[in-house]
Design brief:
The complex is a heterotrimer of chains A (273), B (306) and C (326). Chain B has 306 residues and is an alpha/beta fold. Chain B has twelve helices and ten strands. In chain B, the strands form two sheets. In chain B, strands 6-7-8-3-9-10 form a six-stranded mixed β-sheet, sandwiched between helices. In chain B, strands 2-1-4-5 form a four-stranded antiparallel β-sheet, covered by helices on one side. In chain B, strand 9 and strand 10 form a beta hairpin. Chain B starts with 5 loop residues before the first strand and ends in a 6-residue tail after the last helix. The relative contact order of chain B is 0.13. In chain C, the strands form two sheets. A six-stranded mixed β-sheet of chain C has the order 6-7-8-3-9-10, with helices on both faces. In chain C, a hairpin with a 7-residue loop joins strand 1 and strand 2. The chains are: A mainly alpha (273), B alpha/beta (306), C alpha/beta (326).
Chain lengths: 273, 306, 326
């Protein structure tokens, strides 16, 4: 457990891994916008093609990407069914006499919807969760949103809290395990009984954990004070993010792709939603 | 100015924690007066609850003295008009390493943690990068720059914490029981680092500890009991006073214990060197009338404390 | 005194994160015998596998290979044993498959807990496990889980409190109001109150000052004598082990490298030093003296013994007054 980095980061050396996290964030947002621009079959075909290329570029195993879809299978299935059964169109597929009527348009719509959600998730995976460490992401968000500091949005504070949380998650996980074992050694029973009994059985874990977390917080605050921490003002950074030519190129590319999709969409080739 | 001679100057220093009812508790420090010179290596000994950690926390204004005077590196910490900026400047000069290595590392990567202090001070690039690299090299952790702190051993984590302080270019480092949670090899790593910082970088060291063997390594030992100073002297001098130490819950190292017990049998073992195995070996050899050359050598060398 | 095995480990291996890229062997083919009615020290460097080993003793962790016996009974056969036993019961035939499964599961859990009560584990820094409103209730947590009567619980709490030096007037206080050393004693009392046949303590004195250390070890020794139970102390301090343990096992790099009586084990100072353990200061001094020609045996690891032998040396040279103080 302690050996698994928090989040889904998949360590590899790819073009996408090497991108500036801010660029990745921007590209991801723009790419997701592109998926919403698509309304016809040709566009979707291009989109799927681009997603395949991105997956290959990122060196992430397809199996891992698809796994992120698993929790959504039920929703996907449910909305597809609704689309299939409740979309009215011109091409009726079922015999006239049937009570349930399925139109070709419904099937297309369901397909588009599935593709859109899949690609949306794949894109966040490829650009963000799988190729960017949570801490790099925090840095990127802090720097991208830093103009908001002017209107008193606590951007630095939020980023600091996030990074400290990330630092302490593995520690606290380990500690939870340790305390659970200690209480089990005193005969604690976390498994049997109903919900309330089980929740009660967790008190001997929860209370020590809380008290230790408070102690840690206290000591950490002292240590930060001693190291002259005084908020984000006047701070410099060891790792300053720099956009490189490749990052700029990626952003230009995604904008161009978006424009392309936009016009391609207007041609209206294939079924249109 | 007295500042030239003494780096830390405490005069009638008192401190009480606030009790539950809002009234001050029993004082944790009573009337402590002492002077520590620039570049000295001082160990502060005492059992748990003796007030030694409270003293450490006053040095960096984590706690504020109830009364008395405390001047560190020319900054009067007991001055009620001390500004936030002055305090920052002071904290840069007097670094602090705490007991639990996990609770003082802030960042998720070693080098970013080392950079945390200088970042707060607004040190610009490329100076910042240079300081981080140098600090990591000083404590011998360069190869771990890109590691996550939670995968390091206790001793390594403490060295990273020390590097984080060194990167702020301090004049003095206070170690508040920094070895208490480490295993013997981790403790050795930290102690070797402390000694090196003192000898080679001239950093004033205050090591607060309850390990006698650690105190033997310092130039000077101050024993605190019940909030006041009980002894103050060289390790050899302090370890001579075994009975008094025992009375306040401290024990002399095994070698010193041996010498004391042999003396109790009337064996003449007078002389210095009681605080290290080498010194004790010298004492015994001389008393046995064995060749003194080796003994002399042992007594003079300040000894690697293992 | 006749030596009897309380716990036996046979070719035990344990692996962390099996099947992941982070796989790590924590114990490698360890065979170890722990005697009843004495204090056994398990020493090793951090990462030597000593803490892992103690987790195997009460069945909460299972060895990847090998067997752990308690009084000759393999503690990890719980599952197969329960199944067998249940099959012979008359009511088994009448139960539905689901009900039978449930009953068997409950029986396994019950036995697992029973094992925890027989082999009491005190983890490192055990004060972090305190959670009850009062010290009394916290010590009573284990006995309560055992389902004992209130009178029995009460007598056990008081007895255990006395063992570790938990004073009577702390019992009604919140454990969170005590000092670190006091909390430690409460936590240890909480395990002693279960009256385990084997008490395992992981670095019981870590972080305590010298006085607190000595006191705690003396209390543990007294507990062992009084209860005649098996006590296992896991530590990296040879100085403490040399003073308080009857038998010693040494782990290094996930393997058992030495085991035997204290005298036997500590005669291998060179080997112990090689595996990164800190040999006691007194042993270092003896070594220095030997190098300078003082006639002393090598394996001296307590101050008492060193005093005794050096007195003889001084007496031979006529430099020690006869009789003497003390």
């Amino acid at each position: 457990m302690k050996n698994i980095a928090f989040g889904q980061y998949y360590p590899a050396d790819s073009v996408i891994h090497r991108m500036d996290p801010r660029a990745k964030l921007i590209v991801a947002v723009l790419y997701i916008v592109c998926t919403f621009l698509c309304t016809n079959a040709l566009c979707f075909a291009v989109l799927v093609l681009s997603a395949v290329v991105l997956t290959l570029l990122s060196k992430i195993p397809l199996r891992l990407l698809l796994r992120t879809l698993r929790p959504l299978i039920f929703i996907l299935a449910f909305t597809s069914l609704i689309n299939i059964f409740f979309t009215k169109g011109e091409h009726l597929l079922t015999p006239e006499s049937w009570v349930v009527k399925i139109y070709l348009e419904g099937i297309w719509n369901a397909l588009f919807m599935i593709l859109r959600i899949t690609i949306l998730l794949a894109a966040t995976g490829i650009f963000l969760s799988f190729t960017t460490t949570p801490i790099a992401l925090t840095d990127a968000l802090e720097q991208l949103f830093s103009p908001l500091k002017k209107i008193r949005v606590p951007v630095h504070e939020v980023a600091m809290m996030t990074s400290i949380a990330l630092r302490f998650i593995p520690l606290l996980t380990e500690e939870t395990e340790k305390i659970m074992n200690a209480q089990k050694a005193r005969g604690a029973d976390f498994q049997s009984g109903g919900l309330i009994k089980r929740a009660k059985a967790l008190l001997p874990v929860f209370i020590p954990l809380l008290s230790s977390a408070m102690k840690r917080a206290d000591e950490l605050a002292n240590a930060m004070d001693c190291r002259c921490y005084h908020g984000g003002e006047g701070r410099t950074r060891l790792k300053v993010l720099h956009f490189r030519a490749s990052d700029v190129a990626a952003m230009v590319l995604v904008v161009a792709f978006g424009v392309g999709i936009f016009f391609l969409n207007r041609l209206g080739i294939g079924y249109t939603m | 100015m007295s500042d030239n001679q003494s780096y830390i100057h405490a005069e009638h220093l008192c401190f009480s924690y606030e009790g539950r009812d809002g009234e001050p508790d029993e004082p944790a420090l009573r009337d402590v007066s002492l002077d520590i010179a620039r570049g000295e290596y001082v160990a502060i000994l005492g059992h748990n609850g003796s007030g030694k950690s409270t003293f450490a926390k006053l040095l960096n204004q984590i706690l504020e003295a109830t009364s008395g005077k405390l001047i560190v590196g020319g900054t009067d910490l007991t001055d009620s008009e001390l500004t936030e900026e002055e305090l920052m400047r002071h904290r840069r000069r007097v670094g602090m390493v705490f007991q639990n290595p996990d609770n003082q590392l802030v960042a998720t990567l070693v080098e970013e943690d080392v950079a945390f202090g200088p970042e707060n001070l607004g040190v610009p690039q490329p100076e910042l990068r240079r300081r981080v690299d140098e600090a990591l090299a000083t404590v011998g952790m360069t190869e771990y720059a890109g590691h996550e702190p939670h995968r390091l051993s206790g001793g390594q984590k403490q060295r990273v914490a020390i590097a984080g302080i060194i990167a702020m270019m301090p004049e003095c480092i206070v170690f508040d029981e920094s070895t208490a949670m480490l295993d013997p090899s981790g403790r050795r790593e930290v102690l070797d680092t402390i000694r090196m910082l003192n000898r080679e970088h001239g950093i004033t060291i205050l090591n607060i500890t309850h390990y006698m063997n650690e105190a033997a390594q310092a130039d000077r030992v101050i024993v605190i009991n019940d909030g006041s100073i009980l002894m103050d002297g060289k390790p050899d001098e302090v370890f001579e006073r075994r009975e008094e130490l025992r009375a306040v819950g401290l024990e002399v190292p095994q070698c010193a214990e041996l010498i004391h017990r042999l003396r109790a049998y009337g064996i003449g073992l007078a002389g210095e060197g009681i605080s290290t195995p080498e010194g004790c070996a010298g004492l015994i050899c001389r008393a046995l009338g064995l060749p003194d050359a080796a003994g002399k050598e042992g007594a003079d060398a300040h000894g690697t404390q293992r | 005194m006749e030596r009897r095995d309380k716990i036996v480990l046979e070719h035990v291996s344990f692996v962390y994160g099996a099947g992941t890229p982070f796989e790590q062997k924590a114990l490698d083919d360890v065979s170890l015998r722990i005697s009843a009615n004495c204090i056994t020290g398990v020493i090793g460097h951090t990462g030597s596998g000593k803490s892992t080993m103690m987790n195997l003793l009460n069945g909460l962790a299972k060895p990847a290979e090998g067997k752990v016996y308690l009084d000759g009974y393999d503690i990890n056969t719980v599952l197969s044993d329960v199944l067998e036993e249940w099959r012979t019961r008359p009511e088994y035939a009448s139960l539905s498959a689901r009900a039978a499964k449930k009953a068997i599961k409950a029986e396994i859990a019950r036995r697992q807990r029973e094992l925890c009560f027989r082999v009491g584990l005190v983890m490192q820094y055990p004060e972090y496990q305190l959670f009850e409103e009062s010290v009394y209730q916290d010590i009573a947590y284990g006995p309560k889980n055992m389902g004992l009567s209130p009178q029995e619980i009460d007598s056990r709490v008081r007895e255990a409190a006395a063992f570790t030096g938990v004073e009577a007037d702390w019992l009604n206080r919140s454990p969170f109001d005590l000092s670190g050393g006091q909390k430690r004693r409460v936590a240890i009392a909480g395990v002693m109150a279960m009256k385990p046949e084997v008490l395992v303590l992981d670095e019981p004195a870590a972080g305590l000052d010298p006085h607190g250390r000595t006191q705690l070890f003396e209390k543990i020794c007294a507990y062992q004598k009084q209860t005649a139970s098996a006590v296992i102390i896991v530590s990296h301090s040879m100085e403490d082990m040399a003073q308080y343990c009857d038998e010693v096992a040494v782990l290094s790099g996930a393997r058992l490298i030495l085991q035997g009586s204290r005298e036997e084990v500590f005669s291998h100072t060179d080997l112990l030093e090689q595996v990164g353990l800190d040999i006691p200061q007194i042993t270092q001094l003896v070594r220095l003296l030997r190098a300078r020609g003082v006639e002393l045996p090598e394996n001296i690891y307590t101050v008492d013994r060193a005093v005794e032998l050096l007195r003889e040396r001084f007496a031979e040279t006529g430099r020690c007054p006869a009789g003497g103080a003390k």
